[in-house]
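re: ur msg from earlier - yeah i can do the nicotinamide-adenine-dinucleotide complex, just paste it... oh wait u already did. ok heres what im feeding in:
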Amino acid sequence: MFIDGKWKEAENGGTFDVLNPATGEVLAKVADGGHEDVIAAINAADKAFSVWSSLTAYQRSHYLYTAFQLMMDKKEDLARTMTLEQGKPLAAARNEVQYGADFLLWFAEEAKRIYGQTIPSSRPDQRFIVLKQPLGVVAAITPWNYPVSMITRKLAPALAAGCTVVLKPAEATPLCAIEMCKIFQEAQIPEGVVNLVTACDPKPVGEQFVSHPFVRKLTFTGSTKVGKMLAGKASRHMKRISLELGGHAPFIVFDDADPVHAAKGAVLVKFLNTGQACISPNRIFVPRHMVDAFTAEFSSRVNAMKAGNGMDPGVKIGPLVGPDAIAKVENQVADALKKGARLITGGKRIMDSPLEKGYFYAPTVLTRVTQDMLIFREETFGPVAPIIAYDPADDVIAMANDTNYGLAAYVYTQSTSRAMRAFEGLRFGIIGINDINPTSAAAPFGGIKDSGMGREGAKEGINEYLETKLGGFSV
Ligand code: NAD
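and the outut:
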């Protein structure tokens, strides 16, 4: 762990294993932090806050630039660590490192644009000035699926704003977090500004994050269930909260879209990170008369995707994170087949040597998916593409909105009018119009409803770490 500028073992001496999900091998042992460690980290962050927040924006910006440059220098090493502990293909890991570094660069700039305002008063002898100030100590909890970029998407704006941070990464991917903290250390960010607590059991750390008086903000990316639980507790202590939670993205193909172009886009985004992405399509709506053409193109592309160890060239489908993820996918596929779905390809765990030691599930295509199936409601977080046929009389936007989630949605159409109506009518935070990658450090990322609250990236991202202070001056 990295606490107050020093690398430490856990107070109780405990460790836990980090596994390679492609092979089941133990990659490393890391410190299993607990109550004492998280308190020490929060205290260090609190102590460092006065130093860090009183630097000029230009000084903080300089540290972030340095960290960005170091990330670029270490891109290949970071990507390899990611593929080993998380499983995604090396090319995808390199892309993620770049995406993660982009947040450091973007917020190095935004640090210098934290503007207040002056407001005219109705009284001639009064002036109003609004000041933006950092919140204080930020507790950050990150998931395993994007183990580098989910860290920088939180830490870069927090640091730019002048906050200090205690980070708790997912237990499956602490090695990427350790590498990121080495970068912050090498960038000479003052001690205590960034602290890392690794833990096998997240609960004791989470309890302090939501209740300790020094923590002023909780920023969480993970499941809706855990996010809601933590937000409930944190709100009792009036902490600011940002939540990036689960998704259940619709992918709507309109009847004027080119089915081949739409299928190409749908495959790319569905199987990104083996389906383990919060913006992964979970319901692909296709006009009934286009289903055959769409499915033929879609499944031929799926069948061409190679599953395997992300270190091997040409691999597109890596392992799932663990046995629970395999069980969830198996359950959803079995439920769909029982209720009348048709299996086009895949539909089983891959047990061929040497993949049987990892958590591989064959990329799967289901058609005849209907609203009564689990997969229509539950986030899959795996490589299963459910295709739903719709008729001209159906209101496909209403069908797409029929979910508790509200993160990403995708639309394929050649009509500007349809695109605009869908953009306005879909109740989701991010809409891709003929675009499967509507994400960037410069653009606000986040969801509504059970997908969370707050935005990351863009100018909105830094506001999540700022307090608004009003000064009324009698002159
Ligand atoms: P998860 O909720 O199980 O874990 C996420 C993080 O929360 C991990 O660091 C974990 O250790 C921690 N955690 C779990 N229980 C906790 C507790 N009781 N107290 C404190 N911390 C606790 O989710 P996951 O399965 O690791 O991640 C996948 C989920 O994350 C999916 O639902 C996915 O959609 C979501 N996600 C969302 C976004 C987004 O930007 N909206 C991005 C990536 C992932």
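cool cool. The mean pLDDT is 98. ping me if u need the other ligands too
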